[in-house]
Amino acid sequence: MKKLILVLLFPLVSLTQENFPINGVHETDQITHAFINADIHITYNNKIENGTLLIKNDKIIKVGQQIRIPEDAKIIDLNGYTICPSFIDIFTNYGQISKTNESELGSWNPALNIEKNAIDNFKINVKQAESFINNGFGTLNTFNQDGIIRGSSSLILLSYNKPHKSILLDQAALCFSFDRGSSTTDYPKSLMGSIALLRQAYYDLNWYQNQNKIFNNSLKAFSEKIHLPKIFEVNDYQSIFRAHKIGDEFGENYIIKTSGDEYKRVHEIKQLSLELIVPINFPSLKISNDPYENNDISLASLKHADTAPFNVSILLNNDIDIAITTDGIKEFENFLKNIQTIISTGVTKNQILKTLTYNPANFLNIYNQVGSIEKGKKANFLIFSGDLFEHDFCIHQNWINGKKFDVSNMNTNNLVGEYTFYVNDQELNKVELYIENQKIKIRNDSLVKDQIKKIEITDQKINFHKKGHFFSGIFSDSLMQGEFYDSLGNWGIWKMLKLKSSNLQSEKQVTNNKKHSKIIYPNMAYGLSKTPPQKSILFQNATVWTNESSGIIDSCDVAIEKGKIIAVGKNLSTRIFQSPKKVEIIDASNKHITSGIIDEHSHIAISRGVNEGTQSVTAEVRIGDAINANDINIYRQLAGGVTIAQLLHGSANPIGGQSAIIKLRWGKIAEDLKYENAKPFIKFALGENVKQSNWGSRYRTRFPQTRMGVEQIIEDAFIRAKEYNKNQKEYNKNKRIPKPRKDLELDALVEILNNTRFITCHSYIQSEILMLMELANKFDFKINTFTHILEGYKIADELKDHGASASTFSDWWAYKYEVND
Fold first, then answer.
1. 510 compared with 819, residue with greater pLDDT
2. Which helix (H) or strand (E) holds 805?
3. For residues 20 and 142, which has the higher predicted lDDT (pLDDT)?
4. What is the pTM of this model?
5. 327 and 334 in contact (C-beta within 8 Å)?
6. What pLDDT shows up at residue 431?
């Protein structure tokens, strides 16, 4: 029997071992706490009344009604108080020490901090922790918010014991963004470059996991962390779609930390079935006394300031799972105020509690430990008075990991009521004490001008002042009394006798009657309330410019149906339509109909950088990843007759990025702008731009710096592409040889070699145009289009022989030396 006892006791003893040396007398906390007569939110949607909560050490032992209380328990009567789970914020940088040193064993690009672990840079910050604790938080997910891949986060319990005792989970999530952060490497400097770098990192991971000859610390860390939940921060709703597209490509389900403008495209976001971390730092407009300055405030800014507080409500009404974060709130006192603003938009208190407890815990797979008050979970809970999240909501204690943190005096709740105020035994006036936004406040009779201010409660003591008079005293349930002195040093006595105990301010409940302005698409000037319908239309009696052998036809009809031209000719009948009765007839007499204008060379509608000019060859970047569907230029160019545009990378480097061809569908999201039948193109460039002639003295280091170098950099790129293509083909024939690393840059160049991707090239000088055609002939491909081509008239025969097309300026001449001719 003795052996059996030893076997049973050993694991229990080992679990209580302290792995840090004890300096002094060993302290233990084996007290069982019994919280009785409390209303308890066990979960966000399950509340019991007059319940009991038992905890021991850091764990919840039991919760419910009619629970037997152990004899050794310390009993705390919470009659008149409520318990709910402590809140969880899964997007913070709490306790993170800023470190900018770049490890020599890290990624080749410091924007990829995959090997970084938040736990290695964590230090308890008591002041920061107190702000979270006083607002109801018990658990935080923290990480260094720097870079495109930011390394792993850690889940921290705010009990601020020694750091090693504060860790709930050392690696909780792998964190991402499109922001290069503090990286000292030039690349990437554009949004499309960030996306390309991230995609390449995923492909590198796949390659690394299938080889064993090369060591890479960053990819090793990526491989070890790839199983973690993944949090992706974006800076606007359009980047939600960008992040989701990357997730689709690599089989990831990102938790998206948003910017608060998701309401603008909530229906499309709903279709993605995402989990969102949503900030509640609502924008405020600075309205000037100068009406001319106010003219600079855009309609988009006005509409966002109006609708941002409804963002949470709109998301929840569309059954989108969200967790609320404090990120972006500058003053913590605004947190609960903003929560109340959200409730006023129609969100229920249970829904808010879910976004602060169940959802964040569920997102990071820790709901088995925190997020509700259930047996076996961490003893993380709030004791509060008033109505949850209402104006009288007041947190008194925040228990974290079984440790009590006093937030506001427990007696505060007993002081609420209406009093008669006496000074030196003379009745002065009636006053009200009430709780609003976690603070006890005092309001004088409206006839008294000198308001009582700054009331402070400590234990059984109360202090306040009233215009040159300073009051101090003690209180009981129905009486406050003490002494005061004035600015001249005169002393006196005072007292307050309670008349009634109701929280007079509790009548100021959050009302759900606010409305926001109508959301349009995009939610800015000239946005549409709905997408224009695709109609069957017969245009009659127009002058039609066919651009075909028929030339210009007078008094001609044009029939369109389902987005297509179905007939052009005179005296067309509605019988040619599938539904003749639904045809709209438009008299186009004295009007012209032409093809929509196609802009072969455009730089509109590109977010955060037209150029990725940091490297000489950036064939891996894609304009299609950075389309800005909200660019007002789409609307303006539609007004000018443009219907299709090729969005080109800029001319900063010899081989730029892949272009995107879009239809100008104003009011659609970026993916819906793309022209599905477009063949893929890429931008090349020659001349002064790519050799950095006019960039200034800071930019004299990147190769090439001469026109000769431009030729060599392009030739070298295609030599590498041919070798890469050869290796790929050899692997496809013989799977036993090592699989080549997928290279997004070379993939694009191989497509050129295979005549499946086409070049449009920025050009001016005849010598360089001839050079690139010769180089193309050498590698057996053609230059599809030379743009600008201002000296093209000198070599027209050579261009024709090569099969190149020309796209030139409509204006804008002689703005730099090589354009003078």
1. 819
2. strand 805-807
3. 142
4. 0.92
5. no
6. 84
How many residues are listed for the chain in this entry? 821
Q: Which residues on neighbouring strands pair with residue 54, listed in sequence order?
A: 34, 62
Dist. CA 593–CA 569, nearest whole Å: 13
pLDDT per position as a tens digit, 524-583: 999 999 989 999 999 999 999 999 999 999 999 999 999 999 999 999 999 999 999 999
Location of structure tokens 């009093």: 419
Query: Are 232 and 272 contacting, i.e. CB atoms less than 8 angstroms apart?
Result: no
Average pLDDT for the chain: 91
Does the pLDDT of residue 154 top 60, yes or no? Answer: yes
**Comparison of pLDDT for 441 and 740, the residue scoring more:** 740
Mean pLDDT of 431-444: 80
Q: CA–CA separation, 188 vs 123, rounded Å?
A: 31
Structure token pair of residue 192: 């499309």
Amino acid identity of residue 142, one-letter, is T
Measured between alpha carbons, how far is 654 from 618 in angstroms, rounded to an integer? 9
Q: Is the peptide bond before 522 cis (omega within 30 degrees of 0)?
A: yes
Strands 154-157 and 137-142: antiparallel
Q: Determine the longest span between alpha carbons in the chain, in angstroms.
A: 110
For the cut 90, the answer to whether the pLDDT of residue 162 exceeds it is: no
Closest CA to 204 of 118, 116, 112, 117: 112
Strand residues in 292-363 grouped as ranges (E): 321-325
Single-letter amino acid, residue 406 = D
Q: Please name the residues in contact with 516: beta carbons below 8 A apart, sequence gap of 6 or more.
A: 306, 307, 309, 310, 345
Average pLDDT over every residue of 168-182: 97
Residue 385 has pLDDT above 90, yes or no: yes
Q: Which run of H or of E encompasses 816?
A: none
Report the distance separating Cα 355 and Cα 343, nearest Å.
Answer: 13
Say if residue 426 is exposed, middle or buried (CB neighbours under 10 Å; 0-12, 13-18, 19+).
exposed
DSSP code for 500:
E
Task: Give pLDDT, residue 189.
Answer: 96
Is 559 in contact with 538 (CB distance < 8 Å)? yes
Separation between Cα atoms, residue 614 and residue 196, nearest integer Å: 13
Token code pair at residue 509: 């409940």
C-beta of residue 179 within 8 angstroms of C-beta of residue 194: yes
Residue 99 has pLDDT above 70, yes or no: no
Instruction: Identify the residue whose tokens are 């995609």.
Output: 199
C-alpha–C-alpha distance, residues 256 and 253, integer Å: 9
Determine the Cα–Cα distance for residues 383 and 397; give it in Å rounded to an integer: 5
Peptide bond into 188 cis (omega under 30): yes
Phi-psi region of 678 (alpha: psi -120 to 50; beta: other; left: phi over 0): beta
pLDDT average, residue stretch 680-685: 98
Residue that has been written with the tokens 């009745």 in this structure = 427
Per-residue confidence (pLDDT) for residue 6, from 0 to 100: 37
Q: State how far the alpha carbon of 796 is from the alpha carbons of 520, 771, 778, in Å.
A: 49, 14, 20
Average pLDDT over residues 663-689: 96
- The single residue listed with the structure tokens 């651009």 is 547
Residue with the two structure tokens 């602060």: 356
292 by Cβ neighbours in 10 Å (0-12 / 13-18 / 19+) ranks as exposed
Nearest CA among 588, 528, 522, 519 for reference residue 553: 588
User: Can you say how many angstroms the Cα of residue 163 is from the centroid of all Cα atoms in its chain?
Assistant: 29
Average confidence (pLDDT) over 436-442: 80
Q: Give the helix/strand (H/E) hosting 338.
A: helix 334-343
Six-digit token string for 377:
């979970």
CA distance 761 to 470: 80
Residue with tokens 């491989």: 223
**Overall average pLDDT of the 402-411 stretch:** 92
Among all chains, which residue has been given the structure tokens 């219907």? 643
SS3 275: strand
Contact 683, 659 (CB under 8 A): yes
